Amino acid sequence: NNILWDNKGWAPEGNCQGVSAGQVVYRDSFIGHLFIGNAIASPLGAAVLHNEFGEGEEINGYASKGQFKDTVVGDPGFVDASKHNYTLRPDSPVIDRGVPLAHITSADGSGTKLQLDDAAWFFDGNGIDGEEGDWIQIEGQSTPAQITRVDLDTNTLHLTMPFSWKKGAGLSLPWHGAAPDPGAKESVPGS
Predict the structure, then answer these.
(1) 126: Cβ contacts below 8 Å, ≥ 6 apart
(2) Distance in angstroms (rounded) separating the CA atoms of residues 155 and 135
(3) Of 21, 38, 96, 184, whose Cβ has the fewest other Cβ atoms within 10 Å?
(4) Strands (E) located in the chain
(5) pTM of this structure
(6) Distances (CA, A) of 12 to 9, 18, 19, 52, 148
(7) Comparing 36 with 11, which gets the higher pLDDT?
(8) Distance (Å, whole) CA 143 – CA 93
């Protein structure tokens, strides 16, 4: 759920000297790691992946490795990146292209406590004065709930209000539309 845009690969000396479109350094040790629901592009060219000490390559050159799933290649459609406005335009090709951060592993049910495959994505305020827990949303539901506690030992979230859920449903920070948007900001229709 990341947008990598205009990250210029650069090195001041040696064999890596120069500026390129390369944004992700690929190593064979990445095999087994997945990059899902991201947008990767550069105005400097399409070779946004670089094998360590190798040449740049387009994402489709790595498709056979099966690691880049649902990746958008191209301008993500920011309102004005030159002025650091990374809000997505209404015509952005990445709107609704993200994936849930985690999935529910609890049996179908309801309540204020549920288990996930990975609760580390979420924040409960860490007991810091003035900090509040994340708001989350479950796939198929439009009402968000706030997290009061994250138990990383059991991958359990404690919520402020009861929810109903189905095992396997995706869970993420609140979103508008069919799926979360990649990037730091969720687009809001009509704004």
Answers:
(1) none
(2) 16
(3) 184
(4) 3-5, 9-11, 18-20, 24-26, 35-36, 39-41, 49-51, 56-57, 68-69, 78-80, 85-88, 102-103, 109-115, 135-138, 145-151, 156-165, 170-172
(5) 0.76
(6) 10, 7, 9, 16, 47
(7) 36
(8) 26
